[in-house]
Amino acid sequence: MIDSFIxxxxxxxxxxxxxxxxxxxxxxxxxxxxxxxxENVHFVVQKAGRQRVxxxxxxxxxxxxxxxxxxxxxxxxxxxxxxxxxxxxxxPWFHLILSPEEKIDECNFVxxxxxxxxxxxxxx
Length: 124
Known about the structure:
This protein is mainly β and 124 residues long. The protein is built from 1 helix and 10 strands; from the N terminus they run E-E-E-E-H-E-E-E-E-E-E.
């Protein structure tokens, strides 16, 4: 089913309950995968959702990796070495794991596996 979305723009997020990545096309969850690879990526954090997390101390879906789907359930390529993460209590943006103060907006390629987003060619 998800292979019909290759080449299309999707949003993905780490699903805490299923322990995998949820894939959204337009406004609907179209599947669940253990790893996914996207290109022409930008990172989105919805302000209101993050504020709700901070106030209620309870997680909700409000941060997404958005890009064109190129593959799923494959091994991480060795050249995807930059580790990108998001932590709502730390900052309102995605960041390199080793540099949480440095905001990451875009990336040419990402491979999402486990809870980590591995990047290649970051653009700010």
